[in-house]
Design a protein that fits this description.
Strand 10 (about 285) and strand 11 form a beta hairpin. The protein is globular, with a radius of gyration of 28 Å. It is built from 24 helices and 11 strands. The chain has about 675 residues and is α+β, with helices and mostly antiparallel strands. Strands 1, 2, 3, 5, 6 and 9 form a 6-stranded mixed beta sheet that branches. It has a 3-stranded antiparallel beta sheet with strand order 4-8-7, with no helix packed on it. Strands 10-11 form a two-stranded antiparallel sheet. Belongs to the acyl-CoA oxidase family. Its main location: other. One of its GO terms (molecular function) is FAD binding.
């Protein structure tokens, strides 16, 4: 018995010591003051250790090159919310409280901080999107609400509503019938199936709506009416003084959602709601007092495209905002992984989990992709700004296709990356304070609104096929697809058996090789899907052939967008004025390019574009570049210059949940 008690006491003492050691270790993992990441031992493979040479990165120059001329206004937003804990969104908040907080945040941003986004929507879209990125990083609901209030609605009291059509916009059923006797339009939603849900600001705060409806005019022929196509109308939905719903307007609250609960989404239905004739937004079509219709655009389709042109800005904004979410999640995961230590060589200190090849494989290509998507969406915003100023038809078409592709591609990638980042942080990533849950839930809908991602990729594929046809009919190509004109023949030729075997590092890191590889794949996919569509359309018809080749078409669209992304990344590397920052960007760009080539290596092997030994060299170099990026990972995420209240959410520390959490992990 004494022996058993002694054994039990020894076991208890050992358990207490083990628990104490574990708490101390957890504390050291989380506290950055214990060990600087640069001092942590590195796990090196023999191949890498002989080539190891850490880059010296000028973080200030890198950040300036990335954030550009509008970093000051972003800092203004960050500093304002950092100084106002009462305006930071806590972890535990009800839907009603979140909606009201989101409204207070927006009002304070404009009235107290003096940041006026509406001023820049038309005059300086680049500055507007910079503000939007900063605001969305504070609370994504706030970023969406600001976009609803200022960008979509043309002034502070309009709400953009698309009634009863979903992705098939031209099939909407809400009507605006002109009544010449009273000089009014009558807005009608014909049945429940024509109701449009998920309208931002509709459930609580909105007072006006910009409604897309089919304009119906009376005629004196046998038909009695004429459908002039989709037009936009200003429709009051609530009383300006009492805030009560106006007669004929029915509003339903969409209630608690998976995310973005600071935005009050609702559904609208109109029952014979009358508005003055002047409430027609008549830039692209007008109705006179006697009911005559005039337009500078000759067809319904052209008027429709012009009327919905503003929706392109929504896709631009979502692509840009999604990169902002990716920056936050990558920063949190990488900083944690640099500090978190686990296992190691016998009788030596534990090592950073980012020194494990498996962890580098998860996070380093993601960090490279974050940089790639940043420069691609910056390019998109610049093209959009130019489009707004010039209204050039060619540029409008280019921005339309590019925004569809980037919005789809980037938001899908970020949605997956959020789960990877959560997993990379282990159990601590599951704590709400670390933001992965809220970021994932808020961002998830980005894949659906402003165009379902699968539908948008089909638009890109359709445009590519149109450009392919233009190429062989001698027409002109828009800028984004110019490479199809310039070198389609060389891309579709048989691969060079000599270059297919080149495996030197200089060759593999040559941007020409990388971009040629991306474009070769796109050109091959384009040619093969065009042939398949032609073949199947003979027996299945146009729709059946498209559906038969749909997965092929989606792969084509993604490949094209990756080519655009890489091209813009290479441009950003070459235009960076600081040598050390340029070297860091080149490293990250090479990792992005070679990682993508390796992930689709089967495509290149199938056509002998890459010989077996070259494929192995690409794989080995990709692993080495991941290791090199790991060595400057801290500098690379620091260049995002995200404040602590964005990456650590200190307001959450006041909650009971956070107090319990810190007790468990030994804070």
């Amino acid at each position: 018995m004494e022996s058993q008690r002694g054994n039990l006491m020894a076991e208890e003492e050992f358990s207490e010591l083990a628990a104490a050691r574990r708490i101390q270790r957890l504390t050291s993992h989380i506290s950055p003051a214990v060990t600087a990441p640069s001092q942590l031992p590195l796990v090196q493979t023999e191949a890498c250790s002989s080539r190891l040479k850490k880059l010296e990165v000028n973080g200030e120059a890198l950040s300036l090159h990335m954030r550009g001329k509008h970093m000051d206004v972003q800092e203004k937003v960050f500093e304002f919310f950092n100084s106002r804990p009462d305006l930071q969104t806590p972890i535990e908040i009800s839907t009603d409280e979140h909606r009201e907080l989101c409204m207070r945040q927006l009002l304070a941003l404009v009235r107290e901080a003096g940041v006026r986004p509406f001023r820049y929507v038309a005059d300086d879209p680049e500055k507007y999107f910079a503000i939007s990125e900063a605001v969305g990083s504070v609370d994504m609901s706030l970023g969406i609400k600001m976009g609803v209030q200022f960008r979509l609605y043309k002034n502070s009291f309009e709400v953009l509503i698309n009634i009863g059509f979903g992705s098939n916009v031209q099939g909407l059923q809400t009507t605006a019938t002109f009544d010449p006797m009273k000089d009014e339009f009558v807005i009608d939603t014909p049945h429940d199936g024509a109701i449009k849900w998920w309208i931002g600001n509709a459930a609580v705060h909105g007072k006006f709506a910009t409604v897309f409806a089919r304009l119906i005019l009376p005629t004196h022929d046998s038909k009695g009416v004429s459908d002039m196509g989709v037009h936009a109308f200003i429709v009051p939905i609530r009383d300006m003084k009492t805030h009560q719903t106006l007669p004929g307007v029915e509003i339903q609250d969409c209630g608690h959602k998976v995310g973005l609960n600071g935005v009050d989404n609702g559904a609208l239905r109109f029952r014979s709601v009358r508005i003055p004739r002047d409430n027609l937004l008549n830039r692209f079509g007008d109705v006179s007092r006697d009911g005559k219709y005039t337009s500078s655009l000759p067809t319904i389709n052209k008027r429709f495209a012009a009327t919905l042109g503003e929706l392109v800005g929504g896709r631009v904004g979502l692509a840009y905002a999604s990169v902002g979410v990716l920056k936050i999640s990558a920063t949190i995961a990488i900083r944690y992984s640099l500090l978190r230590q686990q296992f190691g060589p016998p009788r030596q200190p534990e090592v950073s989990i980012l020194d494990y090849q498996s962890h580098q494989h998860k996070l380093m290509p993601m960090l490279a992709s974050t940089y790639a998507y940043h420069f691609a969406t910056v390019h998109l915003v610049k093209k959009y700004s130019e489009m707004k100023k010039t209204h050039d038809e060619q540029l409008v078409a280019d921005v339309h296709a590019l925004s569809a592709g980037l919005k789809s591609y980037v938001t899908s990638y970020t949605a997956k990356a959020l789960s990877v980042c959560r997993e990379a942080c282990g159990g601590h990533g599951y704590a709400a304070v670390n933001r992965f849950g809220s970021l994932r839930n808020d961002h998830d809908i980005f894949q659906t609104f402003e165009g379902d991602n699968t539908v948008l990729l089909q638009q890109v594929a359709g445009d590519l096929l149109k450009q392919y046809k233009e190429k062989f009919e001698g027409g002109t190509l828009t800028v984004t697809w110019s490479y199809l004109r310039e070198s389609m023949n060389s891309y579709l030729a048989q691969p060079n058996p000599v270059t297919a075997r080149w495996e030197g590092e200089d060759h593999l890191r040559d941007p020409k090789f990388q971009l040629d590889a991306f474009r070769y794949r796109t050109s091959r996919l384009l040619q093969s899907v065009a042939m398949r569509l032609k073949k199947h359309s003979k027996t299945l018809g146009t729709f059946g052939a498209w559906n038969r080749c749909l997965n092929h078409l989606l792969t084509l669209a993604e490949s094209h967008i990756e080519s655009v992304i890489l091209a813009k990344f290479i441009d950003a590397v070459q235009s960076c004025p600081d040598p050390s920052a340029r070297a860091a960007l080149k490293l990250v760009c090479d990792l992005y390019a070679l990682d993508r080539i390796w992930k689709d290596i089967g495509t290149y092997r199938n056509v002998d574009y890459v010989a077996p030994n070259k494929a192995k060299a690409i794989h080995k170099l990709t692993e080495y570049l991941s290791f090199q990026v790991r060595n400057v990972a801290k500098e690379l995420v620091d260049a995002f210059e995200l404040p602590d209240h964005v990456t650590r959410a200190p307001i959450a520390m006041q909650s009971d949940a956070y107090a319990q959490y810190t007790q468990v992990v030994g804070f």
